Amino acid sequence: MDLLKSIPKVDKFIKHKTFESCSSKLITKVAKEEITKLREDILNKKIDSFCQEELINKTLKAYNQIIKPSLQKVINATGIIVHTNLGRSLISKKSFEKAKEIASSYNNLEYNLEEGKRGERYSHIVKTLQSLTGCEDAIVVNNNASAVFLVLNTFAKNKQAVVSRGELVEIGGSFRVPEVMTQSGAILKEIGTTNKTHKKDYENAINENTSILMKVHKSNYSIEGFTSEVDLKDIIEVAQKNNVIDYFDMGSGHMIDLPFGLDEKEPSILKYMQYNPSLLSFSGDKLLGSVQAGIIIGKKELIEKIKKNQLLRMLRVDKLTLCLLEEHLNLYLKNELDEIPTLKMLHTSIKTLEERALKVKESLDKVCTCEVLQSSTLIGGGTTPNKKIPTIALSLKYKDFKPNKIEKLLRQRNIISRIENEKVLLDFRSIQEEEIQELINILTEVFK
C-alpha cells in the first residue's frame, strides 16, 4: 500500500520541468495512461519498487512516439528506382520549390484570369500535355487505376470491352483488371489464349454491343517462349474500321527513350501517339518521374465525355498535384531532364556509381568489411517487367553478424538495403549523390 501511495497525482506530475514544452492536453493523457499501468503493475505484484525519474522517462518516451511523424525520410539503397513501398519517384526539388509558393497562396485553380470567371482545373495541364504528346485533350485523376476505372465506366458501362487473356493482370494491392472492369460496369470479353492473341481475335469479338478494344500493360510479369500479342497500331486499325474506341492502359508511361535497350519492350508515349490512338492512360509517379496521378490523353470528344462523368469529382486531383505535375512536365519541354531524379538515376553511368561506392568503402574500411560489386537491379513500380539493368553495389560485413541482423541495424537508421546471396548490399543505382556523405556518417556510427 505504501508503494501505491507514492504514485504521483497526474496534475502535479505533469508540472515537472521535463514536460514544459509538451502539449498540456496530450501529456495529461499520456501521463494518465502511464500512471494507470504503474498502478496495475503494483497491484498485480509485477513490480515492488519504482522511481519517479523512470516514470518521467517512460511518459516522455510515450509522448514522443505519438508526436513523431510516421512518414519519414529513408535512404533507398535497394537499387530499385521506382520503389512502390518507398514512395515511387522522387519529386524534383526544382518543381517542389515552385509548387510550394502556389500551394501556400490563393491561386487560380478554378478561375479564369483572362475572363474573370470560373475556370476549369484541368486546363492548367492540358496545354503542356498537348505540347509534349500532340494529344487533342487531356485530363488528370488521382492515379492510373482511377483512370482505367473512369474510362471504362464512361464508355463501356453495360457494354462490351474486349481484352486479351494474356493481359488480364493483377498488380500490387490485389488490383485486378477483370474486377475493376466489373466494378466499372463494363462487360468483359476475353479473347485469345494466355500466351497468344492475334489481330483476328479482336476482329471476331466485335458485335453491336462492343464499345472498347482495350490493351493492358503487363506491369509485373512477362510471357516468354511460344507467344504473340497484338501491337497497339493493329488494335487501333481494327477499332477505327469498326467504329469503336481503342484504349491502352500503359501503366507506366515515359516520355523519352530508355537506356539499356528497354525501349524494345517499352516504347514511349510519344511513339504510341504516332498511331493516333483514341485514348492512352499512364501513371505520373513511375517512369514519368513525377507525382502520383493518372493521366488520360487522347481525342477531344472522348475526353469531353469523361469530364461529364459524375465520378470524376470523386477522382479529381488537388492544386498541389496539378502544380507539381505541370512544373515537372515543363522540365521535359525545356529539356531539363537532369532535374528529374528518376531519369537522372536511370541514366547514371556505371563508372559514376563505382566512384560513389569506392568513396563509401574508403570511409568504412576501418570499421567493417566492404566489397564493391557489379550487380543488376529492377527499375520497379511495375515498369519493364523482368528486365534488369546494370548497377554497382557495396557488400557489408560486420563482426560475425548475420545478414538479417546487419539489415535490421541499417533499417533502424532509415537505410533500406537488400540481401542477395547471403550478403547485405547497398545498391548505388537508387542512392542520391547528395546522400553519400549522410550515408557514410550513419554507417560509421552503426559500425563503430
Automatic annotation (TrEMBL):
<dbReference type="GO" id="GO:0001717">
    <property type="term" value="P:conversion of seryl-tRNAsec to selenocys-tRNAsec"/>
</dbReference>
<dbReference type="InterPro" id="IPR015421">
    <property type="entry name" value="PyrdxlP-dep_Trfase_major"/>
</dbReference>
<dbReference type="Pfam" id="PF03841">
    <property type="entry name" value="SelA"/>
</dbReference>
<dbReference type="InterPro" id="IPR015424">
    <property type="entry name" value="PyrdxlP-dep_Trfase"/>
</dbReference>
<dbReference type="InterPro" id="IPR018319">
    <property type="entry name" value="SelA-like"/>
</dbReference>
<feature type="modified residue" description="N6-(pyridoxal phosphate)lysine">
    <location>
        <position position="286"/>
    </location>
</feature>
<keyword id="KW-0711">Selenium</keyword>
<keyword id="KW-0808">Transferase</keyword>
<dbReference type="GO" id="GO:0004125">
    <property type="term" value="F:L-seryl-tRNA(Sec) selenium transferase activity"/>
</dbReference>
<dbReference type="GO" id="GO:0001514">
    <property type="term" value="P:selenocysteine incorporation"/>
</dbReference>
<comment type="pathway">
    <text>Aminoacyl-tRNA biosynthesis; selenocysteinyl-tRNA(Sec) biosynthesis; selenocysteinyl-tRNA(Sec) from L-seryl-tRNA(Sec) (bacterial route): step 1/1.</text>
</comment>
<comment type="similarity">
    <text>Belongs to the SelA family.</text>
</comment>
<comment type="function">
    <text>Converts seryl-tRNA(Sec) to selenocysteinyl-tRNA(Sec) required for selenoprotein biosynthesis.</text>
</comment>
<dbReference type="InterPro" id="IPR004534">
    <property type="entry name" value="SelA_trans"/>
</dbReference>
<keyword id="KW-0963">Cytoplasm</keyword>
<dbReference type="GO" id="GO:0005737">
    <property type="term" value="C:cytoplasm"/>
</dbReference>
<keyword id="KW-0648">Protein biosynthesis</keyword>
<protein>
    <recommendedName>
        <fullName>L-seryl-tRNA(Sec) selenium transferase</fullName>
        <ecNumber>2.9.1.1</ecNumber>
    </recommendedName>
</protein>
<keyword id="KW-0663">Pyridoxal phosphate</keyword>
